[in-house]
Amino acid sequence: MAFIAAFIWCYILWLGLTAGSSGLLWSSEELIAGLLFSAVVAYTTKGIIGEKASRFLNPIKWLEFIVYSIGPLFLGMVKANFHVAWLVITGKIRPGIVRVPVDLENDAQYTILSNSITLTPGTLTIDACPEEKALYVHWIDIPEGLERPENSEPVSGSFEKWARRLGR
Amino acid sequence: MGLIVKTTARAIIPLIGIFGTYIVVHGHLTPGGGFQGGATIAGAGILFLVAFGLDEMKEQYNKSLYSALEGIGGLTFLGVAMLGMGVAFFYNTLWHNGPFFNGQPGTLLSAGYLPIMNLAVGLKVFTGLVSALTTIALYRRWKS
Description:
heterodimer; A: mainly alpha; three-stranded antiparallel sheet; 57% helix; transmembrane (chain A); monoatomic cation transmembrane transporter activity (chain A); Cation:proton antiporter (chain A)
């Protein structure tokens, strides 16, 4: 299964790279070469990508990723950018590192949540600790009384719910 | 390295591998070629070494295999250069009258022996760079 996941991931990338070799589509020799070299790369990396990677082959999950990246993530990035621009103009900041307890199970969920937090300006993930189920986040403007948040809601909004769903 | 680096490396290493292979295979059509693509793929190997650490690399890295593959890369280059020996060394006989690799210029299967040589150089550069960097990482200890 790990081989199939790596192979499909590689082949999609190959198709993306070689699009346009015959009109707007692919010439047959590019398709065959893609099969061949994707198989080689997938065979060598099947131990790295991991056995559980095949759960990302689910098309429903791709749809959820697209919805997440153009919906909540993009919106959050735009809002947070304007917020940071405001902080730069006014200069009123209250920086610090906060420990955010999260309720996630696997590596992919931690990675998605950490990257989403880092992509929205004003917050930056320092470290993810799965053993204590917490993230350490550098926050540029901690609101009063939120130095020890109970959950990730004040730091990242709805991102934790999405990360739990996407990485499952 | 931490959890996030490891998980990202799991997704990124096949990506770097296939992109480097793309550079090698299209060496006669687009910028790049054997050395550039091979160095790109070696970057994936070094990312593995940095992200997962030396102990994991020791299990995955096989000295004899990499040594043999580097030799095969060099020998393939030499063998393809000898193909047109009836006329001259490095005579591109595959392009002039060969059975394959003589398609319409601009397509994948054109340019005679160049794609094969690019693959050979890519293999040699990848295995050579990964071997060199792993050897440096394995160097005995900090003091003496």
